[in-house]
From TrEMBL:
Pfam families: BPD_transp_1, OppC_N
Transmembrane region(s): 20-43, 165-191, 198-220, 226-245, 276-298, 333-356
Protein name: ABC transporter permease
Source species of the chain: Pseudotamlana haliotis
Localization annotation: Cell membrane
Recorded superkingdom: Bacteria
GO terms, biological process: transmembrane transport
Family (UniProt): Belongs to the binding-protein-dependent transport system permease family.
GO cellular component: plasma membrane
Amino acid sequence: MTHKSKSLKQLALQKFKKNFWGVFSLYFIVFVGLISVFAYVVAPDNSQHANQMHLAIHSKKPGFNVTMLTIPSQINVEQNIFDKIFFGKKNTDTEVPITDYGLEGDQLVYKEYASEGIEGAEKSIQLDVFPSESVGAFIKEKTFIFGTDKYGRDLLSRVLVGARISFFIGFVAVFISLLIGILMGSLAGYFGGKVDVVIMWIINVTWSIPTLLLVIAITLALGKGFWQVFIAVGLTMWVEVARVVRGQIISVKEMQYVTAARALGYNDFRIITKHILPNIMAPVIVISAANFAAAILIESGLSFLGIGAQSPMASWGAMIKDHYNYIILGKPYLAIIPGLCIMSLVMAFMLIGNALRDALDVKG
């Protein structure tokens, strides 16, 4: 009876599958990733940045329901389906919350929504503004599941669209940190000597600067914006990767398989990329998962300080900044909902990092 020996990858995958929280976190991260990519498909407000404002219904509680009149715009905007799906609809129509409406001759008379105890203004509009179909098609009941923010925007739509920044900053920041960290760590660990001294000096100087302060400095140098924050966060996270890669390479560069590769005449680049790096990637993978979580928190902090994603772009950190004072005004959900989103995504990355650490532990 023969037994097939399982590879280390298969054993690690088996161990990972047995970790409930690791698998659950993986599915949750994939779910958030799909939401962030197709946010405008599932969001009730599919306008760009989910920025459809209705000041008359600002700061309404979750489940708030109102009749919405859509007044068609005379401006024709050409937009392809790809642009609508991934970047939102360029909406030029006007949405007006109303409490009552009726037809009088060739006019639609409606009463605008107003806060409790205040009578809304009565207005009219010519029926020829609407296309040939029934005017009723432009008057619909609208429910705001998470309520509305202080500008009367749909909070659920803003949360869904805001997931895009928090999710993708992790990918971009981790990619940049791996690119720089693996390069610097490999050079320092493999060649040693003066190369190691110079690189370790750069690492120690970078390490000594507070992360948030360094990000703020880089952001101010590059300018406020979407991609600037991604690059700034990535440029501050490579140090830990470089230190781990350096330490791992120092511990394995004198092992027999590396000595054999040198004896066969392979160049240093091939030895590092083909023989050493594949064998030391386990701790780097674990650090990358932790860096995902750290990048999300840093971006949220920057947005809270007003340096991150700029208005009207939706960001969980910016949503907390806009509404943190509502916590003491009896509407804490406006800040708590995006806060819970940040917490759950960060926790998912930390849990998957712990699961990967256990699965890739060869001593386990």
